[in-house]
Design a protein that fits this description.
The chain is mostly helical and about 110 residues long. It contains three helices and no strands. Keywords: Coiled coil.
Length: about 110
């Protein structure tokens, strides 16, 4: 590959990486907003009188799913391999929380 062509390819890859990073940050902000909304619904469900156990379970499932969304968005936006590995474990933990909450809702 000629030097000019290699430089152009590198520049295009860097631009694509910057675009992916910006998209990742946008997804992260959206996921964090969903998490805040889910937590608000969960607090509302827990404060209801009388407490509606299925509604509380559903709202906790919503929180777990939103936490998973935040973890996935952070993982996707990570650039460092070590950071991606740690965030990958966070995603795995969040997925288990969703499964646990789903089992509670289903029972």
């Amino acid at each position: 590959m000629e030097p000019a062509s290699a430089a152009r390819t590198f520049a295009m890859a860097a631009a694509g990486g910057a675009e992916e990073l910006a998209e990742g940050r946008t997804r992260l902000r959206a996921a964090e907003a969903e998490l805040a909304a889910a937590r608000t619904l969960a607090r509302s469900a827990e404060a209801a009188d009388p407490v509606d156990a299925p509604r509380v379970a559903e709202s906790k499932l919503g929180v777990a799913k939103a936490e998973l969304g935040v973890a996935e968005a952070k993982w996707e936006a990570a650039t460092d391999d070590d950071k991606r590995d740690r965030l990958g474990r966070l995603v795995d933990t969040a997925q288990k929380s969703v499964e646990s909450a789903q089992n509670t809702v289903n029972s």
